Recover the amino acids of this structure.
């Protein structure tokens, strides 16, 4: 299992960057992984997981949460507005707040359900037309609109363009978070989590390096 290896590499990256041990949260991304691989990681004591699809997560986590208490579940995939209700019910954090219609739904559900997941705003750092996320320029207005709705996002998230050096994207996200006083940075995946940690990531989203390739 790759969990121990990844935990060691995170600890080493924290130390190299002069960051406190344990300052980076490892989100084990379990989407579409065979059940046995995920339960092995639960058995090993890990409790923080990421999922991309509301329906898939609804199908497995309520039961697993009963069997392994203390699970913290992060939504890291695109979230349709009509799934906001289920998402607020199921997830402890949502990393993909990327538009006002979704912000309104989440605010409504937080009111109705009396619980609000931690929110990360997804930023389209590469300005890619096909990719979700708000543009860096839009962040100040988007944030203040969130505040008007009673939402308090605590961080930013990005997925750098494929095939490009992720560093400038990590740096941009870090600067934006700093400028707006947001403490959390969700960045870095299997291929680049160590450089993300060097650039200040507080949450890394690692799937295949822990569980193996997805089918
Ligand atoms: C699937 C996914 C990951 C994990 O990717 P790996 O390369 O398997 O580590 C991280 N973040 C997001 C947004 C994902 O969709």
């Amino acid at each position: 299992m790759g969990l121990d290896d990844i935990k060691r590499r995170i600890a080493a990256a924290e130390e190299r960057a002069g960051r406190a041990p344990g300052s980076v949260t490892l989100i084990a991304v379990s989407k579409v992984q065979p059940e046995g691989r995920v339960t092995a990681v639960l058995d090993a004591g890990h409790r923080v997981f990421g999922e991309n699809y509301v329906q898939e997560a609804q199908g497995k986590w309520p039961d697993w949460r009963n069997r392994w208490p203390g699970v913290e579940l992060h939504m890291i995939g695109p979230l349709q507005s009509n799934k906001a209700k289920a998402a607020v019910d199921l997830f402890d954090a949502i990393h993909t707040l990327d538009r006002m219609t979704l912000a309104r739904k989440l605010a409504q559900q937080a009111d109705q359900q009396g619980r609000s997941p931690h929110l990360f705003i997804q930023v389209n750092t590469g300005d890619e037309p096909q990719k979700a996320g708000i543009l860096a320029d839009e962040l100040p207005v988007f944030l203040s609109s969130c505040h008007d709705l009673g939402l308090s996002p605590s961080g930013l998230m990005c997925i750098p363009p494929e095939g490009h050096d992720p560093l400038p994207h990590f740096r941009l996200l870090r600067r934006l978070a700093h400028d707006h006083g947001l403490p959390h940075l969700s960045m870095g995946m299997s291929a680049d989590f160590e450089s993300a940690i060097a650039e200040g990531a507080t949450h890394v989203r690692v799937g295949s390096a822990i569980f193996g390739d997805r089918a």
